[in-house]
Amino acid sequence: MSWKKKDLLDIRSLSVEEIGEVHAAARTFRDVIAREIKKVPALRGKTVVNLFAEPSTRTRISFDLAAKRLSADVVDFEASSSSFRKGETLIDTVRNLEALNAEFIILRHAAAGAAQFIAERLSAHVINAGDGAHEHPTQALLDTFTILQNRGRIAELRVLISGDILFSRVARSNIHALTKLGATVVLCGPATLLPDTFRELGVEISHDFEAELPKADVVYLLRIQHERQRAVYFPSIGEFVALFGLTSERFRLCKPDALIMHPGPINRGVELASELADGRNSVILEQVTNGLAVRMAVLYLLNGGQAPLEH
Ligand code: CP
Asked: pTM for the whole thing?
């Protein structure tokens, strides 16, 4: 089966089958990137532009590597030295990239809806690499892939997502992905960062971190996103740590095999103790490695590639 989609804009509009096809293709690409010769010719002759108008380490570098591993020509668009600085609009910018034969545009932007806005106006494939507090679909695809690798299933697992939910595109994409795949999702955080309206997405809400830890199969931590907050949402970082930081002492409340996950970047000692980030329950760097295989899978499927049948 191949994807019929032109773009990957969100998880909300993906079917369970489409998510399964990404996971199946990513399993194949995990084998490819473990080989001595890590390249396949799937995107030979295609041009991929990485347009990151917000900072990124993991997503930008893994998309760059993913496109190169598929033999595409890759352009890293430097927003800070581009004509954005002279006031050129986003749509004029991407139309010029398309005039230069860009066939894939990978966009990270501070505005929710930016990827959809350009996708509706271009023939090029558009991949949303994070749009404001809306969605970060490849993050949820790599996170669910990582849970599957470690647990063999997602259905009936209890996934606790804790921290700055209100401003998190990672939380929104993971809520859609995990609930579609049959997990129970529990959101936890200060009431100011976790409005009750999230219940409409089919999740449970809690403000008692310690009460939730013993029940969780996966503890997924989010950093406080100061760059998106325009007001004060809790009294101090110290108070946040006191109530919602995963410390070594609190970790003793967890199941022995609970997975610790984080999309990065980590604020060590705030949402997560440093020794836990590097400890044996942490799969944080595995998430990063899987990000490469998952992004190869997304590029491959959008280009008309066939997902392996085993999914
Ligand atoms: N998880 C994630 O999106 O990290 P970057 O901001 O470094 O890409």
From this structure: 0.96
